[in-house]
Design brief:
four-stranded antiparallel beta sheet; about 5% helix; globular; mainly beta
């Protein structure tokens, strides 16, 4: 495993709020974001050049607020960058363009609420991106606390556009779901499946013993949902205290109307063959004295029946905020998530499901009362030396500012980890 600082750091008592790292690698470029900032590297992540999105894009009707998501799409050799504002800005650039322009040359489209039948002022929040065989998928929460004027429809929304359209850089076509079909009570604060192939999936909790699972196939204009029974799980609001007395989970679980993302939202999601994996942060109970990650695997080829329900847990400290991706070589699921509490500061960790080992990537030395809303993991692009055996991940720690300064800084890290190249045998 290799972990380096990505140079997208911010300061202040609420430093963790401006972390929420995303990123991807491809074509000799690593591109990383955290709330408000971005950075890129052309030397494998050894050094990064910081970017200010407000200096790259105009201060127009969409503008720029905070949340950002990045993907690299090998089939079209493009980075795709989603930036939240009054709607979203969807931008794309090739690795060559990023290198030649110093990270400033991007083609972009403004995704305003009106494009989706919503009135101006409808807030979009908590985005995600996923790459299919031929489509780019985008998701967000629409309305409610994010701004819901008269006529607004609240709920979780998924948008689809073609990768060839993105590559061409002209007019793109947008297909999208009805937010009311993903009500806040079920799918709020969720993410869509990574490595999703010819069909994208998302899920929410319909109670604590049922998942409502949605699916949309490429080439289809119809999406479906069904309820799938699972074992009940601890859905109470967990707490976890750092050595300096800060509850790093508190603000993400403070009720339905507060600053409380992602709560128990299903934010880890990936596809491995016919297996669909969903993961979320769960609370405490008779079997779990610390907050933990709950994870369910469903069989797409057998009516979405449950294959297994497992947990990432340790009675010595808490786990939370899972992000999932699938290893190209082995089909295994990689995890990027957080741990802390019970004498430990909050830190980012990575690993493979089934290894029962989590590797710490950061070195926090100060606590926070909000750790941020998400971290990231991606399948690293295939190369001759790394034929699909590696993941890239983006997480962060929080560190004290050295004297004579005060307060704290986030430290976003770019991580490479995986299996040996010998685990993968390329055909053709």
């Amino acid at each position: 495993m290799n972990a380096t600082s990505a140079g997208v750091n911010c300061s202040g008592d609420s430093a963790a709020v401006c972390a929420e790292p995303s990123g991807a690698s491809g074509g000799g470029v690593v591109f990383a974001t955290a709330n408000w900032l971005a950075a890129y590297s052309t030397d494998g992540g050894n050094t990064f050049t910081q970017l200010d999105p407000t200096k790259i894009f105009p201060n127009d009707a969409v503008g720029f607020c905070c949340d950002q998501i990045v993907q690299y799409v090998p089939s079209i050799d493009r980075f795709v960058w989603l930036l939240q504002g009054a709607g979203y800005r969807l931008a794309m650039a090739s690795p060559a363009d990023i290198k030649s322009s110093g990270g400033t040359a991007w083609t972009y489209w403004n995704l305003t609420p009106q494009l989706f039948g919503q009135p101006a002022g409808t807030g979009f929040d908590y985005p995600d991106l996923s790459v299919g065989n031929n489509s780019l998928y985008i998701s967000w929460d629409a309305g409610d606390g994010n701004g819901c004027p008269t006529g607004c429809t609240t709920g979780f929304q998924v948008v689809r556009t073609s990768l060839t359209g993105i590559q061409a850089g002209g007019t793109i076509t947008l297909d999208f779901t009805n937010p009311s079909n993903g009500p806040q009570s079920i799918t709020w604060g969720d993410h869509i499946t990574q490595n999703t192939g010819a069909e994208v999936f998302w899920a929410g909790h319909n109670g604590n013993a049922t998942l409502r699972v949605f699916s949309l196939a490429e080439g289809s204009n119809t999406y479906f949902w069904r309820d799938v029974g699972i074992s009940s799980w601890a859905n109470n609001a967990p707490t976890s205290t750092t050595p300096d007395g800060r509850d790093w989970l508190a603000k993400n679980f403070n009720g339905p109307n507060g600053n409380s993302f992602p709560r128990n939202g299903i934010i880890g999601a990936t596809r491995s063959g016919n297996q669909i994996w969903f993961a979320w942060t769960a609370g405490t109970g008779s079997n779990f004295s610390q907050p933990h990650v709950e994870m369910v695997t469903l069989d797409r080829s057998n009516n979405f029946n449950k294959i297994q329900q497992v947990q990432i847990w340790n009675n010595g400290y808490a786990f939370g905020y899972p992000a999932l991706s699938t290893n190209f070589c082995t089909g295994e699921v990689g995890i990027s998530f957080e741990y802390g509490g019970n004498g430990n500061y909050e830190n980012h960790v990575v690993g493979f499901w089934g290894d029962y080992v989590a590797y710490i990537t950061t070195g926090s030395d100060v606590g926070t009362d909000r750790y941020g809303d998400y971290v990231t993991i991606r399948q690293a692009p295939l190369t001759d030396s790394d034929p699909g055996n590696l993941f890239t991940a983006f997480g962060f720690g929080i560190n004290k500012v050295a004297p004579p300064g005060s307060g704290s800084n986030t430290d976003v890290h770019y991580i490479i980890f995986g299996r040996p190249a010998s685990s993968c045998q390329r055909i053709g």
